[in-house]
Amino acid sequence: MIRRPPRSTPKPSSAASDVYKRQIVDEVIYVGSEDHYVYALNIQDGSVKWKFRTNRAVLSSPTFFEGLVLIGSMDWNLYALDASSGWAVWRYRTSGYVISTPAVDAELGLAFVGSADGHMYAVDLRTGRGTWKYATEDQVVSSPALFEGAVYFGSVDGHLYSLDARSGELRWRYKTEGMVVSSPAVVDGVVYIGSTDHRIYALPA
Predict the structure, then answer these.
(1) If you count Cβ atoms within 10 Å of the first and of the last residue's Cβ in the chain, which end, N or C, has fewer?
(2) In the Cβ-directed half-sphere of 78, how many Cα atoms lie within 13 Å?
Protein backbone atom coordinates (compact mmCIF):
# COMPACT_ATOMS: atom_id res chain seq x y z
CA MET A 1 0.00 0.00 0.00
CA ILE A 2 1.32 3.41 -0.95
CA ARG A 3 0.95 6.07 1.69
CA ARG A 4 0.02 9.45 0.34
CA PRO A 5 1.54 12.67 1.70
CA PRO A 6 -0.81 15.13 3.41
CA ARG A 7 -2.45 17.56 0.99
CA SER A 8 -1.94 20.48 3.36
CA THR A 9 1.81 21.10 3.46
CA PRO A 10 3.84 18.94 1.05
CA LYS A 11 7.53 19.85 1.02
CA PRO A 12 10.38 18.94 -1.30
CA SER A 13 12.66 16.36 0.29
CA SER A 14 15.79 18.36 -0.57
CA ALA A 15 14.79 21.34 1.56
CA ALA A 16 17.00 22.23 4.49
CA SER A 17 15.80 24.25 7.49
CA ASP A 18 13.38 27.01 6.47
CA VAL A 19 15.30 28.45 3.51
CA TYR A 20 15.01 26.85 0.10
CA LYS A 21 17.05 26.58 -3.09
CA ARG A 22 18.49 29.80 -4.42
CA GLN A 23 19.47 31.42 -7.68
CA ILE A 24 22.66 33.49 -7.98
CA VAL A 25 22.78 36.22 -10.65
CA ASP A 26 25.24 39.14 -10.86
CA GLU A 27 26.51 38.72 -7.29
CA VAL A 28 22.95 38.60 -5.88
CA ILE A 29 21.35 35.53 -4.29
CA TYR A 30 17.60 35.15 -4.74
CA VAL A 31 15.92 32.75 -2.31
CA GLY A 32 12.53 32.00 -0.77
CA SER A 33 11.84 31.19 2.87
CA GLU A 34 9.17 29.73 5.14
CA ASP A 35 8.84 33.20 6.72
CA HIS A 36 6.77 34.15 3.62
CA TYR A 37 9.50 36.29 2.04
CA VAL A 38 11.54 36.19 -1.14
CA TYR A 39 14.98 37.68 -0.47
CA ALA A 40 17.65 39.28 -2.67
CA LEU A 41 20.96 39.09 -0.80
CA ASN A 42 24.37 40.54 -1.57
CA ILE A 43 26.66 37.57 -2.14
CA GLN A 44 29.66 39.33 -0.58
CA ASP A 45 28.29 40.29 2.82
CA GLY A 46 24.80 38.79 3.01
CA SER A 47 23.09 42.16 3.30
CA VAL A 48 19.47 42.36 2.15
CA LYS A 49 19.09 44.19 -1.15
CA TRP A 50 15.31 43.78 -1.01
CA LYS A 51 12.68 41.42 0.30
CA PHE A 52 9.19 40.73 -0.96
CA ARG A 53 6.43 39.34 1.24
CA THR A 54 3.98 36.75 -0.04
CA ASN A 55 1.05 35.51 2.04
CA ARG A 56 2.41 32.04 2.81
CA ALA A 57 5.68 30.12 2.93
CA VAL A 58 7.85 30.11 -0.19
CA LEU A 59 9.03 26.54 -0.89
CA SER A 60 9.49 27.01 -4.64
CA SER A 61 12.93 27.83 -6.01
CA PRO A 62 13.45 30.98 -8.09
CA THR A 63 14.03 31.11 -11.83
CA PHE A 64 15.75 34.19 -13.28
CA PHE A 65 14.82 35.41 -16.74
CA GLU A 66 15.60 38.78 -18.34
CA GLY A 67 15.42 40.82 -15.15
CA LEU A 68 12.54 38.86 -13.63
CA VAL A 69 12.64 36.53 -10.64
CA LEU A 70 9.91 33.92 -11.08
CA ILE A 71 8.91 32.02 -7.95
CA GLY A 72 5.89 30.26 -6.49
CA SER A 73 4.35 30.50 -3.04
CA MET A 74 2.12 28.43 -0.80
CA ASP A 75 -0.34 31.34 -1.16
CA TRP A 76 -1.28 29.79 -4.56
CA ASN A 77 0.50 32.44 -6.66
CA LEU A 78 3.29 32.45 -9.19
CA TYR A 79 5.13 35.76 -8.87
CA ALA A 80 7.26 37.68 -11.34
CA LEU A 81 9.42 40.11 -9.36
CA ASP A 82 11.66 42.83 -10.70
CA ALA A 83 15.17 41.61 -9.92
CA SER A 84 16.47 45.10 -9.16
CA SER A 85 13.75 46.36 -6.85
CA GLY A 86 11.69 43.37 -5.73
CA TRP A 87 8.55 45.02 -7.07
CA ALA A 88 5.85 42.58 -8.25
CA VAL A 89 5.58 42.96 -12.02
CA TRP A 90 2.70 40.48 -12.05
CA ARG A 91 1.27 37.55 -10.15
CA TYR A 92 -0.71 34.63 -11.47
CA ARG A 93 -3.11 32.87 -9.12
CA THR A 94 -3.67 29.13 -9.32
CA SER A 95 -6.07 27.16 -7.13
CA GLY A 96 -3.46 25.46 -4.95
CA TYR A 97 0.01 25.65 -3.43
CA VAL A 98 2.84 26.41 -5.85
CA ILE A 99 5.87 24.39 -4.73
CA SER A 100 6.99 23.66 -8.28
CA THR A 101 9.89 25.70 -9.65
CA PRO A 102 9.00 27.48 -12.91
CA ALA A 103 10.68 26.75 -16.22
CA VAL A 104 10.94 29.30 -19.03
CA ASP A 105 10.72 28.95 -22.80
CA ALA A 106 12.21 32.18 -24.15
CA GLU A 107 11.11 31.51 -27.72
CA LEU A 108 7.46 31.04 -26.76
CA GLY A 109 7.61 33.72 -24.06
CA LEU A 110 6.03 31.37 -21.54
CA ALA A 111 6.68 30.28 -17.96
CA PHE A 112 5.53 26.80 -16.93
CA VAL A 113 4.73 25.82 -13.35
CA GLY A 114 2.80 23.13 -11.52
CA SER A 115 0.29 23.59 -8.71
CA ALA A 116 -1.13 21.46 -5.92
CA ASP A 117 -4.50 22.02 -7.60
CA GLY A 118 -3.40 19.31 -10.05
CA HIS A 119 -2.64 21.52 -13.05
CA MET A 120 0.39 22.43 -15.11
CA TYR A 121 0.13 26.08 -16.16
CA ALA A 122 1.63 28.09 -19.02
CA VAL A 123 1.78 31.82 -18.22
CA ASP A 124 2.70 34.65 -20.58
CA LEU A 125 5.98 36.16 -19.36
CA ARG A 126 5.10 39.64 -20.57
CA THR A 127 1.52 39.98 -19.30
CA GLY A 128 1.23 37.40 -16.53
CA ARG A 129 -1.90 35.99 -18.13
CA GLY A 130 -2.58 32.29 -18.39
CA THR A 131 -2.12 30.78 -21.84
CA TRP A 132 -3.24 27.24 -21.09
CA LYS A 133 -3.55 24.77 -18.21
CA TYR A 134 -3.55 21.00 -18.19
CA ALA A 135 -5.35 18.95 -15.51
CA THR A 136 -3.77 15.84 -14.00
CA GLU A 137 -5.49 13.61 -11.47
CA ASP A 138 -3.64 14.89 -8.37
CA GLN A 139 -1.15 17.47 -7.10
CA VAL A 140 1.73 18.69 -9.25
CA VAL A 141 4.70 19.51 -7.01
CA SER A 142 7.19 18.35 -9.63
CA SER A 143 9.11 21.07 -11.47
CA PRO A 144 8.83 21.00 -15.26
CA ALA A 145 11.66 20.33 -17.70
CA LEU A 146 11.64 21.59 -21.29
CA PHE A 147 13.01 19.80 -24.34
CA GLU A 148 12.40 20.41 -28.05
CA GLY A 149 8.98 22.00 -27.70
CA ALA A 150 7.69 19.73 -24.97
CA VAL A 151 7.06 20.10 -21.22
CA TYR A 152 7.83 17.14 -18.94
CA PHE A 153 6.69 16.81 -15.31
CA GLY A 154 5.38 14.36 -12.76
CA SER A 155 2.17 14.22 -10.74
CA VAL A 156 1.15 12.68 -7.45
CA ASP A 157 -1.28 10.65 -9.60
CA GLY A 158 1.74 8.49 -10.52
CA HIS A 159 2.27 9.64 -14.10
CA LEU A 160 5.08 11.30 -15.97
CA TYR A 161 3.51 13.70 -18.48
CA SER A 162 4.72 15.11 -21.78
CA LEU A 163 2.76 18.10 -23.13
CA ASP A 164 3.14 20.26 -26.20
CA ALA A 165 4.63 23.48 -24.83
CA ARG A 166 2.76 25.75 -27.22
CA SER A 167 -0.74 24.27 -26.97
CA GLY A 168 -0.74 22.29 -23.73
CA GLU A 169 -2.01 19.20 -25.53
CA LEU A 170 -1.01 15.81 -24.16
CA ARG A 171 1.76 14.12 -26.16
CA TRP A 172 1.99 11.07 -23.91
CA ARG A 173 1.95 9.99 -20.27
CA TYR A 174 3.60 7.09 -18.52
CA LYS A 175 2.21 5.37 -15.41
CA THR A 176 4.58 4.42 -12.60
CA GLU A 177 3.63 2.39 -9.54
CA GLY A 178 3.97 5.26 -7.08
CA MET A 179 3.62 9.02 -6.77
CA VAL A 180 5.88 11.19 -8.93
CA VAL A 181 6.93 14.16 -6.79
CA SER A 182 10.46 14.38 -8.18
CA SER A 183 11.40 16.57 -11.14
CA PRO A 184 12.52 15.21 -14.50
CA ALA A 185 15.84 15.72 -16.25
CA VAL A 186 16.19 15.37 -20.03
CA VAL A 187 19.57 14.29 -21.40
CA ASP A 188 20.27 13.29 -25.02
CA GLY A 189 16.59 12.76 -25.76
CA VAL A 190 15.94 10.63 -22.67
CA VAL A 191 13.70 11.71 -19.77
CA TYR A 192 14.84 10.55 -16.32
CA ILE A 193 12.53 10.69 -13.30
CA GLY A 194 12.06 8.98 -9.96
CA SER A 195 8.90 7.63 -8.33
CA THR A 196 7.93 6.64 -4.79
CA ASP A 197 7.80 3.07 -6.10
CA HIS A 198 11.62 3.18 -5.51
CA ARG A 199 12.43 3.14 -9.22
CA ILE A 200 14.13 5.60 -11.56
CA TYR A 201 12.67 5.63 -15.05
CA ALA A 202 14.41 6.43 -18.34
CA LEU A 203 11.96 7.10 -21.17
CA PRO A 204 12.41 8.40 -24.72
CA ALA A 205 11.40 12.02 -24.93
Answers:
(1) N
(2) 29
3-state helix, strand, coil in the chain (%, to 5): 0, 50, 50
pLDDT, tens digit, 9 for 90 and up, residues 96-119? 999 999 999 999 999 999 999 999
pTM, two decimal places? 0.88
CA 102 remoteness from chain centre:
4
Q: Give me the torsion for CA of 96, 99, 105, 106, rounded to 10°.
A: 100
Whether the Cβ atoms of residue 36 and residue 53 lie closer than 8 Å to each other = yes
Q: How far is CA 114 from CA 129, 146, 151, 175, in A?
A: 15, 13, 11, 18
- Averaged pLDDT for residues 170-190: 98
Q: Check if the beta carbon of residue 98 is closer than 8 Å to that of residue 104.
A: no
**Would you call 145 exposed, middle or buried from its count of C-beta atoms within 10 A (0-12, 13-18, 19+)?**
buried
C-alpha 204/C-alpha 175 separation (Å) is: 14
The per-residue b/e assignment along 151-166, b for 16 or more CB within 10 angstroms, e otherwise, is bbbbbbbbbbbbbebb
Under the banding of pLDDT at 50, 70 and 90, the label for residue 153 is: very high
Q: With CA atoms as reference, report the closest residue to 188 among 171, 172, 164, 204.
A: 204
- Is the pLDDT score of 60 beyond 80? yes
